[in-house]
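Wait, mind explaining this?

_____
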Amino acid sequence: MVVGVVFIALGFIFMSGGGSDNPEVFNNEIYNWQRIRLAPTLVIIGLAIEIYAILANPKK
């Protein structure tokens, strides 16, 4: 389960940032591939790992 939490946390870390200090200036960095593709994929993989960890039978 720790691996799933790490994936989820890493996804949220990659999603953070990209804003502008000045609200009048638009920053295109918010739309880079890391925030649009990589971060949500890591969160979904982390959630899948968590579901597997909860439902897996440890006696096998």
About this structure: The chain has a mean pLDDT of 90.
